[in-house]
Specification:
33% helix; Rossmann fold; alpha/beta
């Protein structure tokens, strides 16, 4: 079955690799982000989430109107500002919450009733979901919240499959301009391939970590429609 797939955060990295995969499979793909990735067979909708929560709802409404009947939502967007909590200004805090948590919740809220099949949701978090870090207090909280959103969302019988994937650091433009050593980070193509594999098959909810040193997949939880482990 060909699907309408919305990838939020598909301008580069894992989101772009997933878009390329789904396009090659013949699905209709809409990519959002700040920059057009230039994939000829995909639709692009400029969508940059900032610190203005009041504007976010209107922007999401326009996105949903322009790309209706979404079957699968892939949420790959992220925003990281490092620092102790008193080093982070209000704008940084609000932007991290808007991008990492409020936007995906508002998208699912709007898309759930519009899909012609139960909405499949794929949430890409990070190792910050389960690893507390001194210089990432807000980012860790947001990623943990996104993971719990997925785990709670699946209890809604009106929602389709939910996949939560928490990769370790990925070698993408996300790290451009920082002093991070990207040489040992996960390859975005490999990460995208694992996400595709994890999303296939019969399940209601699946949560997996993508780890490095060496690169590997660890499925933490997988539930069927009756919320039994499989």
């Amino acid at each position: 079955m060909k699907k309408n797939i919305l990838i939020v955060g598909g301008s580069s990295g894992v989101g772009k690799k997933l878009a390329e995969h789904y396009i090659n499979e013949g699905h209709t793909v809409c990519i959002t982000g700040r920059n057009n990735p230039g994939l000829a067979s995909a639709r692009f909708h400029a969508f940059g989430v900032l610190d203005q929560a009041s504007k976010l709802g209107c922007d999401i409404d326009r996105l949903v109107e322009e790309f209706p009947a979404v079957n699968t939502l892939v949420y790959a967007a992220g925003y990281l500002q490092r620092g102790h909590i008193d080093d982070l200004d209000d704008s940084a805090l609000q932007t991290m919450v808007n991008i990492g948590l409020l936007a995906p919740m508002m998208l699912v809220q709007r898309l759930k009733g519009k899909a012609n099949t139960p909405l499949k949701t794929m949430l890409i978090t990070s190792s910050s979901q389960y690893t507390p870090r001194a210089l990432e207090p807000a980012y860790c909280a947001v990623k943990s919240g996104l993971g719990m959103f997925g785990a709670s969302l699946v209890r809604d019988r009106g929602v389709g499959k939910v996949l939560v994937v928490a990769p370790s650091d990925i070698n993408t433009p996300f790290w451009a301009g920082t002093d991070e050593d990207t040489s040992t980070m996960l390859d975005p193509g490999w990460v995208a391939d694992q996400i595709v594999d994890l999303s296939s098959g019969v399940f209601k909810y699946k949560y997996a970590k993508l780890l490095r040193h060496p690169s590997r997949v660890e499925v933490i939880e997988c539930l069927d429609n009756d919320f039994q482990r499989i």
